[in-house]
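Notes from the 1:1 (GR / supervisor)

We went over the backlog. Supervisor wanted to see one worked example end to end before approving the batch request, so GR pasted a single chain during the call. The sequence is below; no edits were made to it. Supervisor asked that the structure be written out right there so they could see what the output format looks like.
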Amino acid sequence: MPDRPSRRAPATDALLLAVVAVAAVVPRFAAVVIGGGGLFGHLGYDGTVYYAAAAGLAAGKTPYQDFLLLHPPGIVLALWPFAELGQLIGDPSALALGRLTWMSMGAGSAVVAALIFRRYGAGPALIAGLGYAMFVPAIRVEHSTTLEAPGSLCLLGAIWLLTRPSGAGDRLAASALLAGCLVGVMTGLKIWGIAVAAVVVVWCLAVRGYRVAFAVIGGFVATLLAICLPFVASAPQEMWRMVVLDQMGRERNTASVGTRLLEIVGLTGWGGAIQFVALCLVATLLLGASVLAWRIPAGQLGVVLMAASLLLLLSAPPWSPDYGALIGPPAVAIAGGAAAALEGPSVSRPPVGVAAALLAVLVGYLVVAGPGKPFGHRFPGASLAAQLADVPGCVTTDDPTLLVETNLLSRNLARGCPLIVDLGGYSYHLQPGATAHRARSKNRQWQRFAIDYLAGGRASVVVRFEDEAGLSAKTWRTIRSWPIRGQVGRYLIRSPD
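Structure output shown during the call:
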């Protein structure tokens, strides 16, 4: 199906994009402020790990060389400005601002999804934009400073650049070069981006020609080198080990293929006959939409990206429902492409009923998949800060949320305290327990490392492993022998010395 212009007014475009942006921001913001922990709450582990890593970089410490980081350095660079700002306004406020920025990235992704299909009419643009706005895995990861929000925005930007009418020659090559840069940024955030880049290059070779494909490769390589090369130069072996070997060596999660597939689309906790029916329904919708979308360049790219993403997610050793965010961009590319194909050649008289039916499917999906998803919990950062203010030395913890929300992270760094941004991540790194795939509670190397670190502070607070899911009984006996110097809610402040 050839590209065709859509007769539209700038005011109409602005209204459409504003509707999409608001539809994306509202669930992300409400999920945190109304149904979650709030902007200063505990919104998961990973987001504060990355912020703490950025604070370490701002203080002159280098990832891989000075502290463990299990991902490429892109997320640290993305949060570096917020960490620098945290030295002026405090880490809690800087992280809250980062969280708002990440929610805005989610809205930006929805807007770009709408822009990809705007030339086919308002219907396809709304389907793609609102589809991303309502995609539950995207909502779940775009409420905190995680890897996925900037990655999805970059991928959708690349799809837009590669499939919009760009003319030919230098202009087309420039768009392809920029698209390659965006995919390079995505890979600089998470190594899974390499698979995405490969698919994009192959598609370009088949559809756009070798010149476009080489431009994508050039932008990708140059950007990835710019992000990673300084850190490779400082600690090449450790970076390779942490980013590649530690991740690939993780034990495979036991979640079934059916469970993974449903969680990929945001339908968690379904089993038995309901799971089977839901899988059949989702597969039927995806197959039908893919057949329709194949007629549209952006839809075609979405189909091949979806196939690669599903293969990657189903074969990856670790698993989390949050990983489903990876299929957000290809899913909305397929949805928008299918809607564009259904509208037919006439832009002036689009089938309103088709668009309304597709919108009803989106709303029904959000109603079914949305409720019951946790978005963190309130965290007594200010109260804990008051009790930890007079600690003369270092404060240690198993979760950087405590250091960030009490504004003690910068103080620790200024005092020369060890920077452990991801205590749990060391269980994938310390040998031989990591390669033996031992659970944390049975990983002696990690247990020794954890207790040595926690015992090194003048005050210590266990936040993440308080239910004994990671710390062994022996380690807990040691921790419980430390005197309690204060308590806020369920959080006990202990004095190891």
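Supervisor's comment: Residues 29 and 121 are 29 Å apart (CA to CA).
Batch request approved.
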